[in-house]
Amino acid sequence: MMARTARTPEARGLLQQPAHTAVRAIARARLEHAVEKAAPLLVVVDRDVATTIANEEVHGFRVAVRRLRSWLRVCDDLLHDDLARSERAALRRMARRAGAARDAQVQWHWLTEPAEPMGAPAARAARWLAGERLAEYVVQRERLQRRAADRWPRLTTKLAAALGADRDIRGDAEATDPGHTLARHLGPALTHDLELARRALDRIEHPTQVAAIHRARIKVKRLRYLLDAVEHRSPHRTAALKHLRLLQDALGDLRDAHELSTLVTPLITGRTGGRRPLERRPALRDLRALRAALRRRELAAFRHSLDLAGSLEVERAWQYIASLAILLMAPPAGGAPTHRPAHARSDR
Questions:
Q1: How far apart are CA 2 and CA 58, in angstroms?
Q2: What is the pTM of this model?
C-alpha cells in the first residue's frame, strides 16, 4: 500500500478569519482535492479493470470524499443553508459506492499478502477467496466508474457553486460579531468530537462488538480529520495525528478480519443462498483452516486496538486535543467576547 505523506493544515492563516468565510475556503480546498482524486475514475482507458486492484485510485478518491463529508458535517451549522439535502445525499451515495470497491480491494490484499504466514490448507482457501474478492472488486469498481462518469461532474459543479467565494461576503452575524472566527468554531467542535471518540472506545469490551468497533473507528477518524485541518505548530499535534491514525488503522484491521470471517462462515455452513456451485468451493478442511487464521488475526487486532487505546501516547493525544480546544476558544488579546457556535449536533 502507498505510504501516507504529511499534509499541510488546511486552516493555515485562516484561524482568525470570519468562520463562515474560512470554513467555505477549507470546504472548497477539500472539494478540489476530491475532484483531483476522481480523475483516474473518469478517464476511460483500454485496460482490464482487474489490473487496477493493487493501485490506490479508489482509496484516494474514497478518502478525499470522506474528508469533504467530514468537514461539511463539522460546519453544518454554518453551511446548512448553502448546501441542498440532495447534494449531501448524492455525496453520501458516491462515498458508499467507493467504499464497496475499496472493501473488496482491502480484503483481496489481506488474502494475498497476509500479515502472518498461513498453513497450506488456509493458503489454498485464501487463494480461492482472493479470486472471489477480485471479481467483486471488478464489479464494484465498474459501478463506481459509471456513477462517477454520470453524476460526479454535475455534483461537483453544484457543490462548487454553493461553496463559491462570491458567497463569502454575508451581511449576517459575522458583521456584528468579530469574535466569530474559525478558531472559535473549531474549539467546541474538537471538544465534541474528542468526547465522542473517547466514549465510543470505552464501550468496546469484546471483539464480537462489531457495530461498536465500527462506530469507534468512525469517531476516531472524524477527530483525526478535524485535527488535521487545524494549524498549530507543535510536535504534540504531529504525535497526536500519528497515534490517532495508528488507532484508526488498528480498528480497521479488526473490522476487516471480522468482515472476511463473515464471508467464510456461510461457505462452511452451506448457507450461501445457492449463488455458488458447491464444487467451486475449496475443501471444508481448507475453509475451516482459513476461518481459524482469520479469528487469530481478529483477536490479535482486538488486543492491539485495546493496547493502543489505553496507551500513554494516546492519552497524551487526548490531553493535547483538549488543551488545543481550550486555546482555540480563548479570546484574543483584545478581549473580544467568546462566541460559541451551535455544535450540539446529533451523533451522526
A1: 12
A2: 0.84
